[in-house]
Amino acid sequence: MRDKTAIQEKVHTLIKMTAEFCDIYLDEDYKKLSKKLIQKMARKREVPFIYGRIEIWGAAVIVDLGTTNLLYKKSFEPSITPDTICSYFKTNKSTTYQKSKKIRDMFNIKYRNKEFSTPYIIENDPLLHLGIPEKLVTHLKKSMEEMEKKNILELSRNIKIIHKHKKSKGKNKDNNRSEVKNNQSTLKQLKLSDFKEEHENLSDV
Question: Would you call 186 helix, strand, or coil by DSSP?
Answer without folding.
Answer: helix
